[in-house]
Write a structure and sequence with these properties.
By secondary structure, the chain is mainly α. It has 5 helices and 2 strands; from the N terminus they run ααααββα. Strands 1-2 form a two-stranded antiparallel sheet. The chain is elongated and about 60 Å long.
């Protein structure tokens, strides 16, 4: 593998991982009816940040050192989402207490509009996994895939750095 292909692969993983995980979260919400709790939403923000930095890394592919820095920042954002997912999974499995009351927020408007919004909102608890596969919740899968992808990006960037020196 050449140095440029290591960096290209790092950029590819950096854009695909948060895009697919965020896309899966949105599909599960809007198609599957799995409404996110507050901690689920926390996991989405770092993926958005990672997409932004991965796009920067791709746009700067003609400047490899700068591109690698942006891919590294994307990896950090992906890892942060994974860490939040691991914490959230621990709350779901009852290993530790969550940080919030885990209720959905009301929208603005008149007092009656806010009350109607609260009454119509689905109750989404952070300490109950709404879905799992093989005993692993969505938060758990986010942790596994995000932390694994972040480690892969870092390994590819380290290989690129070694090969380009």
């Amino acid at each position: 593998m050449t140095a440029s292909s290591s960096l290209s692969r790092a950029r590819l993983v950096a854009i695909l991982t948060p895009s697919l995980l965020l896309g899966g979260a949105l599909l599960s919400q809007y198609v599957g009816g799995l409404y996110p709790c507050e901690m689920c939403m926390w996991q989405r923000w770092p993926h958005l940040v990672a997409i932004f930095f991965a796009l920067d890394a791709i746009a700067l592919r003609s400047r490899p050192p700068l591109s690698a820095i942006f891919a590294g920042i994307a990896a950090l954002a992906i890892a942060i989402s994974g860490a939040i997912g691991a914490f959230h999974a621990g709350v779901e499995y009852g290993w530790w207490q969550g940080l919030t009351a885990c209720s959905t927020a009301a929208t603005g408007g008149s007092a009656q509009d806010m009350l109607d919004s609260i009454m119509a909102a689905p109750l989404t608890r952070c300490d109950v996994a709404p879905w799992d596969l093989f005993g692993i919740s969505l938060a758990g899968y986010n942790a596994i895939f995000s932390l694994g992808a972040a480690a892969l990006i870092v390994a590819l960037l380290l290989r690129w750095n070694k090969e380009s020196s």
